[in-house]
Amino acid sequence: MVAVAGIRGAHPSQFWLRGESPPELVAFNPATKVWGVYGHAESLQVLNTPSVFSSEIQRKIAVDSRINVANLLQMDGMPHARLRKMVSRVFTPKSVVGLEPRIAELTGELLDRVCGRDKFDLVQELAYPLPLIVIAELLGVPSADRPLFQQWVDMMFRDHQEVSVAEGEQTPQEILGGAAEVLRYIGEHVAERRVRPREDLLTKLVETEVDGEHLTDAEVVNFGFVLLLAGYVTTTMLLGNAVLCLDAFPQWQAKARADRSMLPSVIEESLRMMPPFTALSRVTTEDVELGGKHIPADEVVMVWLAAANHDERAFADPYTFNPARDPNHHLSFGRGIHFCLGAPLARAEGRIALNLLLDRFPNLRTDPADVPTFRDIAIMTGIDRLPLLIGPS
Ligand code: HEM
Q: What pTM was computed for the model?
């Protein structure tokens, strides 16, 4: 793996990309005043005990109040269960299956644009636009507004570094400028759906009813926001990372070319080795023992999914890219009550895009003269550009 990831960039804290182990399974960082959780079993304990490890991180980290309302990612207990049940009614794995032909069509159209060239940037031409168009079409907002979304979401993630709650160093989740724009934009569409319903997710969210209850406008808007936040850049990164893995391990690329039923396992193993979200934050609600350490109440805990995915107690040869590993119980989509609602969609996009890339380009390979660099963000693993050669080798 080091052959893939150690080459360029990557945030210094991402030791797993250098093939290194964490000093401890659970450790307190006195500089940031944040606990780091690096072991697989310890991470599971955190994610599976939401009553002790709360997702309401706004208790400790300043977050714009506008994005607190009905933000599934930052809710606990009954309010989270209620909202998740309501949105799950309309955002179902079955609805994703219905999207697959359209995902294939879009992928084909995007790849048509690069045919005849010797080289193209996978991120620019496919990995960025595909998930964004899919989410836009799903929500029912014009995909022509894609440049706006891209700009806002980029604004949200820019400079977003490792969380710190040390005095004078609070990271107020620097997503506010972009967030305000996204919320206003989706809000306008939600208001319109109340007047003129359509065949789209926003309308279904507006109309959904569970036990006689409807979602409020703020809940619908914020769910749309969470879909964009959690589902767009992550899927972009998944596509880039999976292609990087296939390039770095040509024997697996050859196997996957010959047997496309392997693609889902290739995607899971890419997710394990290079998880788009490398870390999740929680706040303790009471004193707790974790990995032999005593963590007091009201402390911020970062669960380093990427490190847990390389814990040799859970994965044999964790630094070997092995799509055949079974089980592959990586934590890249989280665990427990917050398990990623978009996992079926991300997996489908990954499978369809990789399949078409392999179909179209028998000589797909990275350009040794133009090697990509990783985004310098501690909590994400992904690349901004991935130049690929597609001419005869
Ligand atoms: C939650 C990762 C794609 C929607 C999560 C969580 C992770 C994650 C780790 C758990 C957060 C936590 O526990 O605090 C990913 C990755 C993706 C991806 C790696 C792509 C490879 C998507 C897509 C969508 C989506 C495509 C929808 C369009 C959501 C939602 C939640 C979530 C709504 C919140 C669930 C809850 O809090 O109950 N995702 N995600 N994700 N994801 Fe994804």
A: 0.94
